[in-house]
Amino acid sequence: MRSEQMLTPIIRRLIRQSPEQCISFENYMEQCLYHPEYGYYMNAKEKIGRSGDYYTSSAIGGLLGEVLADYVVNQADTFGSDEPVTVVEWGGGTGDMARQLLDQMKSEHPAVYRRLSFISVETSVYHRTHQRRSFAGHLNRVSWLTEQDWLQQGPWENVIVLSNELLDAFPVHRVQFEKGQLLEIWVQWNDADKCFSERLMPIPSGPLQEYVRRLSLDVMEGQQLEVNLAADAWLRRIGNAIARGQVVTIDYGDRADELIAPHRMNGTLICYRRHLAHDDPYFEPGSQDITSHVNFTDLIRAGLAVGLQPSEFLTQKQFLVHNGLLQKLQDTLSQDPFSPAARRNRAIRQLLLSDQMSELFKVLIQIKR
Asked: How far apart are CA 95 and CA 74, in angstroms?
């Protein structure tokens, strides 16, 4: 039986058990994406690539992993020429980007590769199994840890924590400005129409209420916003476990003033299924990706609270160019458009010219020295 057929009754049961007969959207999204058996990211459905629901930057020619490898090598020099270096990827999925990074380091930077330890923190059993196959040539350099184990082994020295399209998939609270106040969007079951529907509820005391108090009153009547408290909490945990190192966050999003601009009346929540984007998070729960734009202003603030100083905030295009992507273009006299060099050059152009990846995606680098 498909995930959506199993997950809908589970969510309905949560709603029935709630005194309010509804649950927060954040709880609903958590079930849709991370239910241990039927959540979108936890099941065995192929998600990335032609047969999946969306593409990621790491799926385009292997170049993002190569550029990140070169970046890691440059940063390793700042730790000391003989010091061990630890790279941690959080939520690496199938492991494609990490394999690209490890391949590049092994072939082009063997001296740094020999002092490298690579740690994967991945909750999905399906993805961990996939990663073990992807990392077959690097198993002497790779280990897997849970988040709790990684945190307990800190504070970490000479560490670079990477996340690529991780935080956009954290469950978010949704709020709406209605009649002069911010209310939270909750999810209920509509018996008449046999579907999920939304209800506006007062925001209970706690972290969400404290967060919305900081929001600008420039929010317009009827405007909806996403609040990713989980991303802030994640970054604080990571920062507290780092003695010396950095966090590199690659994701789509922007600064807070852009995310609450008038043209974003409906927020940024979006769903992907079979390479089609739409705005209905209640369609077949567990069968589709649900994401929202990352608020990098919040991440910078959360980082500062735990000693992570913002070093760079730039578009993915700027990051790739600054770290040598154009030097990977290959001269070719071949007329064959499917030659390896031609395919590689097309991948570089796609990374630099695609609006969906070159400008929407941002890179935030936060450092603790």
From this structure: 22
